Amino acid sequence: MRVYFTFDPRPDLKESLLKDFPEVDFVFHKKIDEEELAKAEVLVTYGEDLDNEKIKIAEKVEWIFVASAGIEKMPAQAIADRGIVVSNVRGIHKKPMAESILAHLLSIKRALPFIYKQQSEKIWNQQTKLYELNGSTALILGPGAIGSEVGRMLQAFEVYTIGLNRSGESALYMNETHSMDKLKQLLPKADIVISILPSTKETKYLLTYEDFTLMKNNCIFMNFGRGDLVRTEDLIKALEEKQIFHAVLDVYETEPLPSDSKLWEMDNVTLSPHISSRSSRYLERSFEIFKPSLRKWMNGERDLENVMDILRGY
């Protein structure tokens, strides 16, 4: 069996693969080589380097393992037409992303940007407002693996958590869970609105300017899912009008965020360059999912972890 990585993992991870699967022919490249792609039976990729033409070239590939949670940039229809199995690393982001979200929240509540600025300017200034996280209500859009981990951490701070998902079925570490059609009803209750939604037909531009007017004017909005949840102009208008207190963004409608975007200049927004899920343990956790799945695949089993519906996007 030939397994082709379109990225080059660190040496210790490669060595563990070679040791555990001596019967497999592994190929590691930093970018796609079309000759190697044509020979591959299993493809391991971050997903962004694939297009319709490359799927045609990969005529032997039957399984694509995506070392990422998002698959919106992949040629979904071409993959579905071929019947290629797609699985990903859903769940590995929950620890670093939850820590990032909590860090930003505490930073805003406890005025850390102000404190750091005063320190850099050697100014002793106590004139700032400080808030507490406990006693808040957080509305979490997408209480899956990541959202539930966020909920677990927030509940430790005595935050009341409300989850919104497609089904309305209960989710871990949510005090309440509702279906997405309750969005407008629940937005006015939230002190914090956190989105961890993927990019799908249903979630694209789910939030509108009108939704921001329904939020409290002291609400903190955080988008850590995908940038097309809201049109940039709607978000900017809401921030300019102070419809909400602050926005924390890790994802954007256009990435990288254009240098002429008004968002760069606004004092009520925190911009993170889509790095909240990054961790020194990212690939280590990815391999913890890939290796058991590869063993199953070699044994003829197809009930792999995190198999996705490529056309739905999750």
Automatic annotation (TrEMBL):
<comment type="similarity">
    <text>Belongs to the D-isomer specific 2-hydroxyacid dehydrogenase family.</text>
</comment>
<dbReference type="InterPro" id="IPR006139">
    <property type="entry name" value="D-isomer_2_OHA_DH_cat_dom"/>
</dbReference>
<keyword id="KW-0520">NAD</keyword>
<dbReference type="InterPro" id="IPR036291">
    <property type="entry name" value="NAD(P)-bd_dom_sf"/>
</dbReference>
<dbReference type="GO" id="GO:0016616">
    <property type="term" value="F:oxidoreductase activity, acting on the CH-OH group of donors, NAD or NADP as acceptor"/>
</dbReference>
<protein>
    <submittedName>
        <fullName>Phosphoglycerate dehydrogenase-like enzyme</fullName>
    </submittedName>
</protein>
<feature type="domain" description="D-isomer specific 2-hydroxyacid dehydrogenase NAD-binding">
    <location>
        <begin position="102"/>
        <end position="276"/>
    </location>
</feature>
<dbReference type="Pfam" id="PF00389">
    <property type="entry name" value="2-Hacid_dh"/>
</dbReference>
<keyword id="KW-0560">Oxidoreductase</keyword>
<dbReference type="Pfam" id="PF02826">
    <property type="entry name" value="2-Hacid_dh_C"/>
</dbReference>
<feature type="domain" description="D-isomer specific 2-hydroxyacid dehydrogenase catalytic">
    <location>
        <begin position="12"/>
        <end position="302"/>
    </location>
</feature>
<dbReference type="InterPro" id="IPR006140">
    <property type="entry name" value="D-isomer_DH_NAD-bd"/>
</dbReference>
<dbReference type="GO" id="GO:0051287">
    <property type="term" value="F:NAD binding"/>
</dbReference>
